[in-house]
Amino acid sequence: MSKGPTYPTLCTEIAGLAVVELARRFGTPLFVYDADRIVQRLRDLAAFDHVRYAAKACSNLAVLDLIRRHGGLVDAVSAWEIRRALAARYSPSGDPPPMVYTADIFDAESLDLVIQQGIHVNCGSPDMIDQYGRRAPGRAITLRINPGFGHGHSRKTNTGGESSKHGIWHEQLDDCLARAARYGLAVTGLHMHIGSGTDLEHLAQVCGAMEKVALQVGGGVRYISAGGGLPIPYREGESYIDLAAYHRLWDATRKRLQAAFGHPVRLEIEPGRYVVGESGSLVTEIRAVKRQRDNLFYLVDAGFNNLARPILYGAYHPMSIAPADGSGDRPAVDVIVGGPLCESGDIFTQEEGGFVVKRPLPQATVGDLLVIHCTGAYGFVMSSNYNSKPLAPEVLVHRGVAHLVRRRQRFEELIAGEQIPDRQDE
Ligand code: LLP
Q1: If you ran DSSP here, which 8-state letter would residue 10 be given?
Q2: Which of 111, 148, 278, 285 has the highest CB neighbour count under 10 A?
Q3: CA 271–ligand 1 middle distance (angstroms)
């Protein structure tokens, strides 16, 4: 298992481009993605038959297009995520299915869309089987099974076990197979995803659960999906997951199933964070440096409207200072890093439970840039317009060239769709 990278607390470049220049050209706050890093992460996973990218982690069209051009398939979780994948020129159907709709419910729009476009469906509830079967009898489906256990980097990202709303409870498999049979739906795929940001020990347990369920479903099974959940090293000293060992476990499971069924069984993996997490950096500008008794604060122009992971999960992200004047060698100080929002939880250096912590960072002044690393996954996509802040721009750096792949939201876009009612009573 190789060690994760260290992020120096002074950083002048992202993907070979000067941070100061990126900030000057595109403004801050700004998300920057390194295309090479994404491509490398897809290559890391090449031992699996297919990498089905969980688009929810970062769904910018340019990122989807990049992943498509490097052989990645798509896992979409909503009608509009499907439409994003279509806009990035993914075909709706094929073998293997270029995109799969994975969810625990259909809303009216997603049900219509998967039926019209012939998109493969991964059903996470018995009701989905009925609703799909009534409208599209005779098609092939995948079942997402909750194996009765789960694990994630936070309780909020654990998607297995009886407290999780996700997947079909493993003991209801026979009932679900009977439902599928009632509509002539062929169960060709099986899927388990026990949580996000978990570890090898928990992921390894899924193989056994999958094998048991697949043998119960029988020879109609043509592919199995290991789900996503692969962790990435966020903190100094953390290591990469041993992908070769993980693949070996799944490959052995798949081979036993092939022997039992007498036909090939495809093996998919469905990561989001692993593919894009490390590629992203959130570039912010320090707008105030202030002291509250013993605490020194750097207040930057990005808040939890841009990056919600710290306030939601107490997530740790490495941070660096990019001095505006390019100077190096600054003494370290312990600081709290916060954003501009009118809410005390708008702090990037916090732990789960909202406990504010200090971080040693180089001394900085207003106008210096502060880079928040490892923000490619669940960064931009979880942003909001809270406090009427515009959505930040996104830049994809490809072969040394910075491409603006989303411009900063404009005020007219923010209020588009809002109306003040006509008041005849005044
Ligand atoms: N497949 C399914 C069915 C999922 O629900 C997810 C993530 C993935 C794959 C991809 O998981 P990954 O490889 O990225 O761990 N917002 C949280 C993560 C929520 C994950 C939701 N589902 C965070 O920022 O940590």
Answers
A1: B
A2: 278
A3: 8
Could you say which of 58, 176, 342, 374 is catalytic? 342
Give the atom of ligand 1 at the shortest distance from the alpha carbon of 144.
Answer: 3
Closest of 258, 142, 244 to residue 200, by C-alpha = 244
Q: Which of 314, 267, 282 is nearest to 155 (CA)?
A: 314
In 3D space, the residue among 64, 79, 230, 208 whose CA is nearest the CA of residue 145 turns out to be: 208
Our mutation pick for probing the ligand 1 site, out of 144, 145, 153, 273, counting the most ligand atoms within 8 A of Cβ, is: 273
The atom number, within ligand 1, closest to the CA of 154 reads 25
Instruction: Report the atom number in ligand 1 closest to the C-alpha of 191.
Output: 3
284 within 8 A of 301, measured Cβ to Cβ? yes
123 is an active site residue: no
Instruction: Give the closest residue to 9 by CA, choosing from 384, 282, 332.
Output: 332
Report the interhelical angle of 173-182 vs 200-217 (nearest 10°): 50
The SS3 of residue 136 is: coil
**Ligand 1 pocket by C-beta < 6 Å: which residues?**
54, 57, 75, 102, 157, 159, 193, 196-197, 227-230, 270-274, 309, 313, 377-378
Contacts 24+ apart (CB under 8 A), 112-116: 113/79, 113/82, 113/83, 114/82
What is the tens place of the pLDDT at every residue in 310-325? 999 999 999 999 999 9
Rounded distance from Cα 195 to ligand 1 centre (Å):
7
Q: Express each pLDDT in 185-198 by its tens digit.
A: 999 999 999 998 88
Q: Which two tokens stand for residue 396?
A: 């994809």
| This prediction's pTM | 0.97
Residues contacting 251, CB < 8 A, separation 6+: 47, 267
- Per DSSP bridges, beta strands 350-351 and 295-300 are unpaired
